Amino acid sequence: MNGSAQLLEFDDLSVTYRTGGGDVPAVRGVSLSVAAGEVVGVAGESGCGKSTLAATILRLQPPSAKVTGRVLFEGEDVLTMKWGALRTLRWAGASMVFQGALHSLNPVQRVGAQIAEPIRLHEPGLSDKTIDGRVGELLEQVGLPAVRARAYPHQLSGGQRQRVMIAMALACRPRLIVADEPTTALDVMVQAQVLNVLKDLVSDLDVGLLMISHDLSVLADLCDRIAVMYAGRVIEHGPADKVFTDPLHPYAAALAASFPHIGDLAARYAPSGLPGDPPDPTELPSGCSFHPRCPQRFEDCDRVVPELRGDDTRAAACLLLEAP
Ligand SMILES: Nc1ncnc2c1ncn2[C@@H]1O[C@H](COP(=O)(O)OP(=O)(O)OP(=O)(O)O)[C@@H](O)[C@H]1O
């Protein structure tokens, strides 16, 4: 998915953690892009490499991670960027919203002061009054009254805290927001409210959003395009509605069936689960990594690694799609 006007591009990115127990290949040859103002989702079960992929955007991977390939932000490789450029990229170019705002916010500082911090850092010339005004606007943008700036994190609900995290991510007017499971810790109603805030913001402010979630139905609602990861690789990508309602890869199909659409009540109460567990990255199955769990596997699947075949619009990596 390479193009010239991309905001973000992962180009054949691989990340391997070096540990005492051996190498852990967390991300394997991922190529994926986000255009300006576009909303792209990355789906997959726990351990498939989603957070590792996201961390590389701001070069937040730990020193034990060996990274190959490129992560281009507006054409410049984040992995080789000088420190000054990286500091500008963080917050002002791209910013992150993580899950579990309670742990990310400082419990003894008012939330307004925390939202103001990146603004002070990136625009040191601004007066306190201007910054306070900006903080109030940011809170209102995420649906909180400006006076909540004076609250401490424990005085806010989980959903309100997550909105504060989104306000903070917007503080320096980034072109890209990376949201890693931003609603996972919230109950379903609050989850829907926070997702609506995100949805409105990306269309109003025209920022790009890379949204990471294990729940394909959440991504289907929010995203233009979705990439599905399994064992560190992208195994399918395409328009969000197509990947969710008409998946090509048996894993994407199983994932879609595990998270039926919120309106599909019958399926919601009887979701067809995905049997088995994702593989240990240190002991990946031969051939297609998904073959031991795949209901449609055939004799070639345990010896041939399927390539991602298709085009920029739609592609999948499955031998079924290669069969004559
Ligand atoms: N610092 C690390 N050192 C060694 N292995 C790691 C490290 N961080 C992650 N891993 C391993 O890399 C693989 C990918 O992890 P990652 O957190 O990127 O997946 P994920 O899809 O985001 O999962 P989750 O949704 O549970 O966070 C996993 O097998 C994980 O155990």
From TrEMBL:
* UniProt main location, coarse: membrane
Instruction: List, alphabetically, the GO terms of the cellular component aspect.
Output: plasma membrane
Q: Name one GO biological process term.
A: peptide transport
All copies of the ABC transporter domain together span: 8-256
Name the residues that span the membrane: none
The protein's matches in Gene3D superfamilies, at most eight in alphabetical order, are given as:
P-loop containing nucleotide triphosphate hydrolases
UniProt membrane topology term: Peripheral membrane protein
Entry-linked CDD domains: ABC_NikE_OppD_transporters
**Subcellular location, in the record's words?**
Cell membrane
**Which SUPFAM superfamilies does the UniProt record give?**
P-loop containing nucleoside triphosphate hydrolases (SSF52540)
PANTHER family registered for this protein in UniProt: DIPEPTIDE TRANSPORT ATP-BINDING PROTEIN DPPD, OLIGOPEPTIDE TRANSPORT ATP-BINDING PROTEIN APPD
What family does the entry list?
A: Belongs to the ABC transporter superfamily.
Q: What is this protein called?
A: ABC transporter ATP-binding protein
What is the organism field in this record? Nocardioides agariphilus
* Taxonomic lineage of the native organism: Bacteria, Bacillati, Actinomycetota, Actinomycetes, Propionibacteriales
